[in-house]
Each structure stands twice: as C-alpha cells, then as structure tokens.
Amino acid sequence: MYLKALEINGFKSFANKTVIEFDSGITSIVGPNGSGKSNILDAILWVLGEQSYKNIRAKESSDVIFSGGKNKKAKNQAEVSLYINNDDKYLDIDFTDVKITRKIFKSGENQYFLNNERIRLKDIHNLFLDTGIGKQAYSVIGQGRVERIIGSSPKELREIIEEAAGVKKAKNEKEEATKKLENVKNEIEKIDYVEKSLS
Ligand code: ATP
User: Fold this and answer.
1) Which of 7, 13, 43, 193 would be 36's cystine partner, CB 3.0–4.6 Å?
2) Per DSSP, what are the bridge partners of residue 11?
3) Cβ contacts of 136 within 8 Å, gap of 6 or more
4) Atom 16 (ligand 1) nearest CA
5) What residues flank ligand 1, with Cβ below 6 Å?
6) According to the model, what pLDDT value does residue 141 have?
7) Strands annotated E in the chain
8) Model pLDDT, residue 5
9) Are 93 and 127 in contact (CB under 8 A)?
10) Contact 46, 80 (CB under 8 A)
11) Cα 109 vs. chain centroid, distance in angstroms?
C-alpha cells in the first residue's frame, strides 16, 4: 500500500484544484515560508478524519475553507481526496485503488466518501485503524509532535506503542464485545425475574 496522490480543492491556501503525485521513494516538499507546505500535511490528516482543529492549526471547522486572497474570492466548500494503491490488500477491503474523500461546507457539514460512495467517519477510522496511517497514527509527525511524544506520560506512551504494534483494533473490539455481553447478562436477569414472578 502506498499513497499515490493527493487532490486538494478549496482547502486552506489551495484555492483551486491542485494534484500532488507521490512517486515511489522519498518525496520532499520545498517552498518559501508561508507557501503552504504544512497545509499539505494538514490536508492529509484532515481527509483521514482528523476532528481536532488544533491538530491542523485551525480554530474552527470553516477555517479550513479557502478564505480569499489576491484577486481570488473565498470558497464555499473544501474538498480533499487521498488516492491509495492497495494492490497488496494492506487495507482490508476488496478495492486495489482506494480514493478517500472528505468535504466540508460553509455550514460546517462534513461528508466522507470511499471511492465516491458516501460513508461514515467511523468507517474511515476502522479502515485505517492499526494500519499506521490513521489519524491517531504516527505517520504524520507535525512540528512540535516529537517533543510531545518524548514528554508523554507512561499511559500515553503505551497507547502510542499499542497503535504502532496494531493491537488497538483488537482492544476496541474487545470493549465492544464486553458491552454486548453486559447487555445480554442484563436481558437474562430480566427474563429470570419475569419467569420467577410467573411461577
Ligand atoms: P513555513 O515554512 O513558515 O512553516 P509553510 O510553507 O508550511 O510555512 P503553511 O503554514 O502551510 O506554510 O501555510 C500558511 C499560509 O496558508 C498562510 O499564508 C495562510 O494565510 C494560508 N492559509 C491558511 N488557511 C487559509 C485559508 N483558510 N484560506 C486562505 N489561506 C489560508
């Protein structure tokens, strides 16, 4: 699995449709201060479902929509798509070409798509959980994040290692199964009670 391309339209400083293709090997993004290099990383985090606007250097949801510039009018929506080669089926879905899209409108409404079909944010999280490229993953290390990791508490460090080792998905599934078990136990207790009161 690898990232093939990123398409940005109306997101932060990218007023018009811009496609960035990632070749095999290392890609470097260079440019003057304030030219939008970090906005590219923000776009990747955002399309992967980032919910914390602080993590993508914004104060509120609409901050990610192009707000106007030299001879350019502000946009009403922003859209980012990530194209992924999934030939090796690293992502647990049938597609070999995967396109993940996130859109936001001025109203603050967010929409998510998998290969142009509408999906939920939860589906995106599940798709990338334990793959190393989810929103909680450490594939995108922003400025200052290294210091934050070094300064993490033992509990936070454990969470980082669990995500990297791929056990987080199993932990979430265990939590869900435990909740279901608890519900079933409650139902059995209710049935026992009704049975006893009838006998
Ligand atoms: P540096 O090298 O200094 O870290 P950079 O190349 O990483 O800079 P970014 O931080 O990605 O630059 O981009 C900052 C630019 O993005 C600023 O000029 C800012 O005005 C612009 N910008 C951010 N959000 C928006 C928005 N919603 N609409 C228009 N422009 C925006």
Assistant:
1) 13
2) 14, 65
3) 163, 168
4) 13
5) 12-13, 31, 33-39, 63, 65-67, 69
6) 73
7) 2-9, 18-21, 77-85, 97-105, 110-114, 117-119
8) 96
9) yes
10) yes
11) 16
Q: Where are the domains of the chain?
A: 2-166, 168-199
User: Is residue 91 within 8 Å of residue 131, measured between CB atoms?
Assistant: yes
CA distances from 14 to 11, 37, 39, 121 (A): 5, 11, 8, 23
The predicted pLDDT at position 10 comes to 97
* 27: its two tokens: 């890609």
What is the dotted CATH code of the domain comprising 2-166?
3.40.50.300
| Separation of CA 21 and ligand 1 centre (Å) | 20
pLDDT one-digit tens code per residue, 101-150? 999 999 999 999 999 999 999 999 889 877 777 656 567 777 677 787 88
Residue 158 has pLDDT above 80, yes or no: yes
d(CA 167, CA 45): 21
